[in-house]
Design brief:
Helix Hairpins; Four Helix Bundle (Hemerythrin (Met), subunit A); mainly alpha; 9 helices
Protein backbone atom coordinates (compact mmCIF):
# COMPACT_ATOMS: atom_id res chain seq x y z
CA UNK A 1 0.00 0.00 0.00
CA UNK A 2 1.40 3.37 -1.01
CA UNK A 3 2.49 5.70 1.78
CA UNK A 4 1.47 9.35 2.00
CA UNK A 5 4.90 10.34 0.74
CA UNK A 6 4.55 8.08 -2.31
CA UNK A 7 1.05 9.37 -3.05
CA UNK A 8 2.25 12.96 -2.74
CA UNK A 9 5.21 12.19 -5.00
CA UNK A 10 2.86 10.67 -7.58
CA UNK A 11 0.81 13.87 -7.64
CA UNK A 12 3.81 16.20 -7.81
CA UNK A 13 6.04 14.31 -10.23
CA UNK A 14 3.72 12.22 -12.39
CA UNK A 15 1.80 13.88 -15.24
CA UNK A 16 0.02 10.71 -16.36
CA UNK A 17 -2.31 10.52 -13.36
CA UNK A 18 -5.42 12.72 -12.94
CA UNK A 19 -4.05 14.20 -9.71
CA UNK A 20 -0.63 14.80 -11.24
CA UNK A 21 -2.06 16.48 -14.30
CA UNK A 22 -4.34 18.72 -12.22
CA UNK A 23 -1.39 19.69 -10.01
CA UNK A 24 0.84 20.56 -12.96
CA UNK A 25 -1.90 22.57 -14.69
CA UNK A 26 -2.49 24.57 -11.49
CA UNK A 27 1.27 25.04 -11.10
CA UNK A 28 1.67 26.29 -14.66
CA UNK A 29 -1.19 28.72 -14.18
CA UNK A 30 0.46 30.08 -11.03
CA UNK A 31 3.79 30.43 -12.85
CA UNK A 32 2.22 32.35 -15.72
CA UNK A 33 0.34 34.67 -13.36
CA UNK A 34 3.47 35.34 -11.28
CA UNK A 35 5.53 36.19 -14.37
CA UNK A 36 2.76 38.48 -15.64
CA UNK A 37 2.66 40.21 -12.24
CA UNK A 38 6.41 40.90 -12.41
CA UNK A 39 6.10 42.26 -15.94
CA UNK A 40 3.23 44.55 -14.92
CA UNK A 41 5.16 45.82 -11.91
CA UNK A 42 7.94 47.01 -14.22
CA UNK A 43 5.47 49.40 -15.91
CA UNK A 44 5.60 52.73 -14.04
CA UNK A 45 1.90 53.56 -14.44
CA UNK A 46 0.71 50.13 -13.32
CA UNK A 47 3.18 50.07 -10.42
CA UNK A 48 2.00 53.46 -9.18
CA UNK A 49 -1.62 52.33 -9.15
CA UNK A 50 -1.43 48.65 -8.21
CA UNK A 51 2.00 48.40 -6.58
CA UNK A 52 0.85 47.07 -3.17
CA UNK A 53 -1.47 44.49 -4.75
CA UNK A 54 1.23 43.24 -7.12
CA UNK A 55 3.77 42.94 -4.30
CA UNK A 56 1.25 41.06 -2.17
CA UNK A 57 0.55 38.72 -5.09
CA UNK A 58 4.27 38.15 -5.56
CA UNK A 59 4.75 37.14 -1.93
CA UNK A 60 1.74 34.84 -2.20
CA UNK A 61 3.19 33.11 -5.27
CA UNK A 62 6.63 32.90 -3.65
CA UNK A 63 5.14 31.26 -0.56
CA UNK A 64 3.29 28.71 -2.70
CA UNK A 65 6.39 27.94 -4.78
CA UNK A 66 8.52 27.62 -1.64
CA UNK A 67 6.10 25.07 -0.18
CA UNK A 68 6.04 23.22 -3.51
CA UNK A 69 9.86 23.16 -3.66
CA UNK A 70 10.11 21.77 -0.12
CA UNK A 71 7.49 19.11 -0.90
CA UNK A 72 9.50 18.03 -3.94
CA UNK A 73 12.57 17.59 -1.75
CA UNK A 74 10.56 15.60 0.79
CA UNK A 75 9.02 13.28 -1.82
CA UNK A 76 12.22 12.12 -3.50
CA UNK A 77 14.56 9.56 -2.00
CA UNK A 78 17.63 11.63 -2.86
CA UNK A 79 16.79 15.31 -2.17
CA UNK A 80 20.29 16.58 -2.97
CA UNK A 81 20.26 14.93 -6.38
CA UNK A 82 16.97 16.59 -7.24
CA UNK A 83 18.16 19.95 -5.87
CA UNK A 84 21.17 19.82 -8.22
CA UNK A 85 19.15 18.70 -11.25
CA UNK A 86 18.06 21.16 -13.97
CA UNK A 87 14.50 21.57 -12.70
CA UNK A 88 15.69 21.54 -9.09
CA UNK A 89 17.99 24.49 -9.74
CA UNK A 90 15.30 26.32 -11.72
CA UNK A 91 12.77 25.76 -8.91
CA UNK A 92 15.25 27.16 -6.39
CA UNK A 93 16.13 30.19 -8.51
CA UNK A 94 12.42 30.87 -8.97
CA UNK A 95 11.91 31.62 -5.27
CA UNK A 96 15.22 33.24 -4.31
CA UNK A 97 14.74 36.69 -5.98
CA UNK A 98 11.73 37.61 -3.82
CA UNK A 99 13.66 36.92 -0.62
CA UNK A 100 16.72 38.73 -1.99
CA UNK A 101 14.58 41.78 -2.78
CA UNK A 102 14.27 42.37 0.98
CA UNK A 103 18.02 42.98 1.14
CA UNK A 104 18.70 44.03 -2.46
CA UNK A 105 16.04 46.32 -3.97
CA UNK A 106 15.46 45.47 -7.62
CA UNK A 107 16.35 41.80 -7.29
CA UNK A 108 12.70 40.89 -7.79
CA UNK A 109 13.12 41.54 -11.52
CA UNK A 110 15.05 38.25 -11.63
CA UNK A 111 11.74 36.49 -10.94
CA UNK A 112 11.30 36.20 -14.71
CA UNK A 113 13.52 33.12 -14.30
CA UNK A 114 10.25 31.42 -13.40
CA UNK A 115 9.43 31.43 -17.09
CA UNK A 116 11.87 28.50 -17.40
CA UNK A 117 9.50 26.45 -15.27
CA UNK A 118 7.01 26.58 -18.12
CA UNK A 119 9.12 23.83 -19.68
CA UNK A 120 7.09 21.48 -17.50
CA UNK A 121 4.28 21.97 -20.01
CA UNK A 122 5.84 19.12 -22.01
CA UNK A 123 4.95 16.74 -19.18
CA UNK A 124 1.53 18.19 -18.52
CA UNK A 125 0.39 17.90 -22.12
CA UNK A 126 1.98 14.44 -22.46
CA UNK A 127 3.89 15.57 -25.52
CA UNK A 128 5.97 12.41 -25.52
CA UNK A 129 7.05 13.01 -29.09
CA UNK A 130 8.47 16.39 -28.12
CA UNK A 131 10.25 14.85 -25.15
CA UNK A 132 11.71 12.25 -27.49
CA UNK A 133 12.85 14.92 -29.93
CA UNK A 134 14.44 16.86 -27.07
CA UNK A 135 16.29 13.70 -26.05
CA UNK A 136 17.54 13.22 -29.61
CA UNK A 137 18.66 16.85 -29.79
CA UNK A 138 20.53 16.55 -26.49
CA UNK A 139 22.28 13.39 -27.71
CA UNK A 140 23.18 15.06 -31.01
CA UNK A 141 24.58 18.15 -29.28
CA UNK A 142 26.60 15.96 -26.92
CA UNK A 143 27.99 13.90 -29.81
CA UNK A 144 28.91 16.96 -31.85
CA UNK A 145 30.47 18.98 -29.01
CA UNK A 146 34.08 18.00 -29.74
CA UNK A 147 33.74 18.59 -33.47
CA UNK A 148 32.21 22.02 -32.90
CA UNK A 149 34.94 22.93 -30.37
CA UNK A 150 37.67 21.94 -32.84
CA UNK A 151 35.92 23.93 -35.56
CA UNK A 152 35.57 27.01 -33.34
CA UNK A 153 39.24 26.72 -32.40
CA UNK A 154 40.13 26.75 -36.10
CA UNK A 155 37.90 29.78 -36.68
CA UNK A 156 39.49 31.61 -33.74
CA UNK A 157 42.94 30.96 -35.18
CA UNK A 158 41.74 32.27 -38.53
CA UNK A 159 40.40 35.41 -36.81
CA UNK A 160 43.79 36.02 -35.22
CA UNK A 161 45.51 35.78 -38.60
CA UNK A 162 42.95 37.98 -40.39
CA UNK A 163 43.07 40.55 -37.57
CA UNK A 164 46.86 40.74 -37.75
CA UNK A 165 46.75 41.09 -41.55
CA UNK A 166 44.17 43.88 -41.38
CA UNK A 167 46.27 45.70 -38.77
CA UNK A 168 49.27 45.56 -41.11
CA UNK A 169 47.22 46.62 -44.15
CA UNK A 170 45.15 49.45 -42.64
CA UNK A 171 47.14 50.61 -39.64
CA UNK A 172 46.23 53.07 -36.90
CA UNK A 173 45.35 55.89 -39.28
CA UNK A 174 42.27 53.99 -40.46
CA UNK A 175 40.97 52.97 -37.02
CA UNK A 176 42.77 49.64 -36.67
CA UNK A 177 44.74 50.89 -33.68
CA UNK A 178 45.96 47.50 -32.48
CA UNK A 179 45.70 43.79 -33.22
CA UNK A 180 42.95 43.06 -30.63
CA UNK A 181 40.85 45.85 -32.19
CA UNK A 182 41.48 44.33 -35.61
CA UNK A 183 40.48 40.87 -34.35
CA UNK A 184 37.25 42.39 -33.03
CA UNK A 185 36.59 43.78 -36.52
CA UNK A 186 37.31 40.37 -38.07
CA UNK A 187 34.84 38.61 -35.75
CA UNK A 188 32.12 41.22 -36.36
CA UNK A 189 32.65 40.98 -40.12
CA UNK A 190 32.87 37.17 -40.18
CA UNK A 191 29.57 36.85 -38.33
CA UNK A 192 28.00 39.31 -40.81
CA UNK A 193 26.97 41.63 -37.96
CA UNK A 194 28.85 44.62 -39.34
CA UNK A 195 28.49 47.36 -36.72
CA UNK A 196 30.31 49.81 -38.95
CA UNK A 197 32.38 51.38 -36.16
CA UNK A 198 35.57 50.29 -37.96
CA UNK A 199 35.87 49.92 -41.73
CA UNK A 200 38.82 49.40 -44.10
CA UNK A 201 39.74 52.36 -46.30
CA UNK A 202 42.40 50.85 -48.58
CA UNK A 203 41.73 48.73 -51.66
CA UNK A 204 43.65 45.77 -50.26
CA UNK A 205 41.80 46.06 -46.95
CA UNK A 206 38.43 46.06 -48.69
CA UNK A 207 39.39 43.00 -50.73
CA UNK A 208 40.30 41.16 -47.52
CA UNK A 209 37.06 42.36 -45.92
CA UNK A 210 35.06 41.02 -48.87
CA UNK A 211 36.75 37.64 -48.56
CA UNK A 212 35.98 37.55 -44.83
CA UNK A 213 32.30 38.35 -45.46
CA UNK A 214 31.99 35.57 -48.04
CA UNK A 215 33.74 33.09 -45.73
CA UNK A 216 31.36 34.10 -42.95
CA UNK A 217 28.34 32.58 -44.68
CA UNK A 218 30.06 29.22 -45.06
CA UNK A 219 31.58 29.20 -41.58
CA UNK A 220 28.26 29.95 -39.86
CA UNK A 221 26.67 26.99 -41.65
CA UNK A 222 29.30 24.43 -40.58
CA UNK A 223 28.25 23.98 -36.90
CA UNK A 224 24.64 23.66 -38.03
CA UNK A 225 25.65 20.95 -40.49
CA UNK A 226 27.62 19.06 -37.84
CA UNK A 227 24.69 19.02 -35.43
CA UNK A 228 22.25 18.11 -38.22
CA UNK A 229 24.33 15.07 -39.20
CA UNK A 230 24.50 13.89 -35.59
CA UNK A 231 20.78 14.50 -35.17
CA UNK A 232 19.99 12.44 -38.26
CA UNK A 233 22.08 9.60 -36.89
CA UNK A 234 20.55 9.64 -33.41
CA UNK A 235 18.20 6.76 -32.68
CA UNK A 236 14.65 7.66 -31.83
CA UNK A 237 13.15 5.56 -29.06
CA UNK A 238 9.82 5.97 -27.22
CA UNK A 239 10.17 8.07 -24.08
CA UNK A 240 8.11 7.77 -20.90
CA UNK A 241 7.00 10.69 -18.73
CA UNK A 242 7.51 8.67 -15.55
CA UNK A 243 9.77 10.23 -12.94
CA UNK A 244 12.07 8.23 -10.68
CA UNK A 245 10.76 8.18 -7.11
CA UNK A 246 14.30 8.23 -5.74
CA UNK A 247 16.07 10.96 -7.75
CA UNK A 248 13.14 12.49 -9.72
CA UNK A 249 14.96 11.94 -13.03
CA UNK A 250 12.85 11.81 -16.19
CA UNK A 251 13.36 10.89 -19.85
CA UNK A 252 13.43 7.10 -19.43
CA UNK A 253 12.67 4.70 -22.27
CA UNK A 254 9.04 3.58 -22.42
CA UNK A 255 9.97 -0.03 -21.55
CA UNK A 256 12.47 0.88 -18.81
CA UNK A 257 12.04 -0.91 -15.50
CA UNK A 258 14.82 0.88 -13.63
CA UNK A 259 16.10 4.46 -13.47
CA UNK A 260 19.09 4.91 -15.78
CA UNK A 261 20.64 7.41 -13.35
CA UNK A 262 20.33 5.82 -9.91
CA UNK A 263 19.10 2.27 -10.66
CA UNK A 264 15.92 2.51 -8.60
CA UNK A 265 12.81 0.69 -9.80
CA UNK A 266 10.35 2.73 -11.82
Amino acid sequence: MATRREKLGEIIFEAETPGGKAFDVALLLAIVLSVVAVMLESVAGVRARYGPQLRAAEWLFTTLFTIEYLLRLICVGKPLRYALSFFGIVDFLAIVPTYLSVLLPGAQSLIVIRALRLLRVFRVMKLVHFVGEARMLRAALRASTRKVIVFLGTVLTLMLIIGALMYLIEGEEHGFTNIPESIYWAIVTMTTVGYGDIAPATVLGRILASMVMIMGYGIIAVPTGIVTVELAGARKRPISTRACTLCAAEGHDADAQFCKYCGAGL
